[in-house]
User: Fold this.
Amino acid sequence: MDQIQQLYDVVNVWLHQHPFVAGFVLAMIGLAAAFIVDKLFSNVLKAFTKKTTNTLDDKIVAELHRPIQATVLLFSILLIVNEFFDKEEWSPLVSKFTDTAFILVYSWVLWRISHTIFNHLQLKSKRRKFTQILPLIKNLTIAVVVIHCAYLLLSLWGVNVTPLLASAGIVTAAVALASKDTLSNFFGGISVFVDRPYVVGDYIVLESGERGEVVNIGMRSTRILTRDDVLISIPNSMMSNRMITNQSGQVDRYRLRIRIGVSYDNEPDEIETALIESLSGVESVLWQPVPRVRFREFGDSALIFDLLAWIAMPADKGRVTHEINRNIYYKFKDEGIGIPYPQRVVYIHPAKDATLEADIDK
Assistant:
């Protein structure tokens, strides 16, 4: 035992006389320790995650692989400096660098884990309304992580944050004035995400008359693909302040309304039967709810009827209207139901003076 103690003392003295060699040796030992600890820690966590059917915990464990190695290595560096180097000269500087590395590593870990969690929720969530707001929450979370990381780094290196916050307030005000349209679109996008007047996949009609499918809702604009395959990009500030008709609505169907004028010579019951029969053969028409006919008014030249039928997708409105109108035309032609032209009856009365002159001549 005495010989081992003497050998230990000799090696310890030699290492203190040659700190850089000692640092290199212990750094290699630290790398090996980081590898071993990572393997042990990862295996323990994987043993728990295998018991679950969810894949999210496996993804999170995979993200912790590098940070565990970095933590062990940084601790080994602190140990080397405190043991073999002048503490007053090296320790404060190395401590700041290692603390900086800790902040960067674990801020990066939080960013990666947040990214993984939100991507997993985006893929697995079955609630469409929930998935629409996930990108906004994801961006805000990442922004909080980055701002907190910057604050910790500035505080660590002795930078007074108060003047920076005051300067940031002035800069923010100037930027806000210069980019008010961008900010307006940003908050308009937030209102769209919160109120959810429409979601991706809905068919909407704008106040200006454009109609199409919502294909993307971004933080600055909403993109609509029209029936002409034209992509329209509309700022969110306009979308949040204009009247929007959502034809998809809250139910999975859309009602068609086809108005037609019929001759006064035909019976209303006959017209109703012909209009309902004209829907046969149109595959996109839903028979639940049951299609119906409404006698709306006595027009100047015709009896006005509305044929009301439901379809599954608002996108089919144009095609289905075409098929129904064609069927109505041929059905009315076969049944002898007339579709009158606008009529005007003009009566010409002779002037009173002209009648008197005719009587005098006689």
About this structure: The first strand starts at residue 203 and ends at 205.
